[in-house]
Amino acid sequence: MGGLRSSKISLFPPALFFSSLLFLLSSIADGATPSSSSSSFNLSTLAFDDAYSPLFGDGNVLRSPNGRSVRLLLDRSSGSGFISSKMYNYGFFSANIKLPGEYTAGICVAFYTSNGDVFEKRHDELDFEFLGNVRGKPWRFQTNLYGNGSTHRGREERYSLWFDPAKEFHRYSILWTPDQVIFYIDDVPIREIIRNDEMGSEYPSKPMSLYATIWDASTWATSGGRFKADYKYAPFVAEFKDLALDGCPLEAVQQVASAAEELDCSDSHARLAAADYSTISRKQRYAMRRFRQRYLYYSYCYDTLRYPIPPPECVINPMEKERFKDTGRLKFGGSHRSPKRRSKRRSRARVVPVIVEDPDM
Ligand SMILES: *[C@@H]1O[C@H](CO)[C@@H](O)[C@H](O)[C@H]1NC(C)=O
Ligand SMILES: *[C@@H]1O[C@H](CO)[C@@H](O)[C@H](O)[C@H]1NC(C)=O
Hints:
It is an enzyme of class 2 (transferase). It is found in: Secreted, Cell wall; Secreted, Extracellular space, Apoplast. The protein is of the alpha+beta class. The protein has one domain: Sandwich (Jelly Rolls). About 15% of the residues lie in helices and about 30% in strands. It has helices at about 20-30, 50, 255-260, 265-275, 280-295, 320; strands at about 50-55, 60-65, 70-75, 80-85, 85-100, 105-115, 125-130, 140-145, 155-160, 170-175, 180-185, 190-195, 210-215, 235-250, 295-300, 345, 355. It has an eight-stranded antiparallel β-sheet. Strands 2-3-14-5-10-11-12 form a seven-stranded antiparallel β-sheet. A hairpin with an 8-residue loop joins strand 7 and strand 8 (about 140-145). The two termini are about 15 Å apart. Bound molecules: 2-acetamido-2-deoxy-beta-D-glucopyranose (2 copies). One 2-acetamido-2-deoxy-beta-D-glucopyranose (NAG) binds near residues 42 and 44.
């Protein structure tokens, strides 16, 4: 995960430019939130122990009595995390998540797929990363993608949300197929990456595990580390329930390196392709557009200072581009400082997603 950070977000779009005007008109017609208001996915959910196990901070991984939900705690002694017991060669990874509330500066909650444990230098990763904030300021989050160790080429998008993720559960899902990646919040697709031949191995294509973690990111998460985690408010609790996961599982990690290519995943791929979450309906596409018009405030595709030629999967929408500066940030998005160009990198794949630190923020 990782990527550029920003401390300031504007929840409300500037009222006075074209696309936002269109948006306002459409939102008057259709209600203010991006909810696609179709029924949610048809998922069968899993007991924690059926598919996941603690990753670190075991004492801070608290299963509910019925074993179907789990709380991840961060306190002075430790953060915590869990990992899927198997790796999957493409799949769908999903959970209903409630984030810690109150004062959450310096806290990072991540829900992501990775194989950094197995492929150190050429790992793949797909991320949801939630960044806490000082009291009264909303959570922000970002999505990202790495393929075959492309940590020099972050593909971050950053957003605000249309609800308070600490108040109620919302479903966060990552669909990863041989052809596309879709990030969902509830049944709203918020980002779609269509595989493009020019991406080559930068499209994630080796088996990955699902990870969920909470940890202290005080050094960078909120205003560039200005606001640290305050353990007066500990423990910080992220709750996960209605866990769902489908894909082509590898029975053993050894399979990953040796025989992943020989694995017969055709049934699983067909099942994934037929699932409701693999097709974006017209209504959902509209909800996605609305979400992106209103809540997307940084896109690497429009960050021409960083990528003079946008990475090949970028679909440049001229109307959308119009709203962003050459730093990839919204023109009228409030007082975001512009990100410093390239930044340090570090990989702590055992515990956390790949983080590209940004001193801005
Ligand atoms: C939901 O999925 C199950 C199989 O997992 C299937 O039997 C059922 O018909 C599906 N329900 C709907 C409404 O599609
Ligand atoms: C992935 O990266 C490794 C190391 O950089 C490289 O040797 C390999 O050719 C890449 N794989 C593909 C399929 O491009």
